[in-house]
Amino acid sequence: MNPVPAPPSIAAPAPPPFARLFLALWPGPAALQSLAQWQRRWTWPRTAAVVPAERLHLTLQFIGPVPTARLPELLHGLAVPVRRFDLTFSQAEIWPRGLAVLCADAVPEPLAALHAQLQAALQRLALPVETRPFRPHVTLARTARGAVARPHPPACEALAGCTGGRARYPGHRAPSRHDRDRAERRPRQRPRAADRSSLGAPPHS
């Protein structure tokens, strides 16, 4: 009797050797809802590639392709302290190549310090850093030349919950003592590295 051959084993696919990475602040639920609502109120041309709501973010540093074997090293090397800050958005702009963005009115000192700390950490890791001036913004759509923005963004809460930072739109109420006490009790997390290949976003957005 001939033995029944064993079925061929199927090996698990090997992880990709490289990941395209960036560091970003991600909206909290309330901020994300308001951003998405305001995004839907724009008038978009047919060519516009509107960013899905769950991918809206504020890029701190674009890193680019990195060997996946270095990810544990990066997680350790990019751990930097973060201070609370307010970030106000009210400027809608169309940038070159039809990039529709919502820009921050100013760069708070703690956010500028965070950006500088991450830049220094990337340099210590021998990774590339942005050379252009830091302009905090949220990309709403690409190839959107001719889009018509609403005149004023809506009020919303907490962008960048991962840092303990807060974004504020015109009309957002000042935080109460209860809000501040509750925020202080929340554990603070560090900015997280994201795999740009999973987000599908082009560089510098």
Task: Give the tags.
205 residues; alpha+beta; three-stranded antiparallel sheet; 23% helix
How would you describe the overall organization of this protein?
With 205 residues, the protein is of the alpha+beta class. Helices cover 23% and strands 24% of the residues. It has five helices and eight strands; from the N terminus they run βαββαββαββαβα. It has helices at 29-40, 71-77, 109-124, 177-185, 196-199, and strands at residues 18-25, 49-50, 58-67, 86-95, 99-104, 137-142, 166-168, 192-195. A five-stranded mixed sheet has the order 2-6-5-4-7, with no helix packed on it. A three-stranded antiparallel sheet has the order 3-1-8. A hairpin with a 3-residue loop joins β4 and β5 (99-104). Residues 155-205 have low confidence and may be disordered.
**How many beta strands in the DSSP annotation?**
8
Question: What value does the Rg take, in angstroms?
Answer: 20 Å
Series of H and E elements: EHEEHEEHEEHEH
Structure class: alpha+beta
Helical amount: 10-25%
Sheet of most strands: 5 strands, mixed
Number of helices: 5
The amount of beta strand, in percent, is 15-25%
Question: How are the strands of the largest sheet arranged?
Answer: 2-6-5-4-7
Judging from the principal axes of the Cα atoms, what is the shape?
Answer: extended
Average predicted confidence as pLDDT: 76
List low-confidence stretches. 155-205
| Distance from first to last alpha carbon | 66 Å
Give a nutshell description of this structure.
The chain contains five helices and eight strands. The protein is an alpha+beta fold and 205 residues long. β4 and β5 form a beta hairpin.
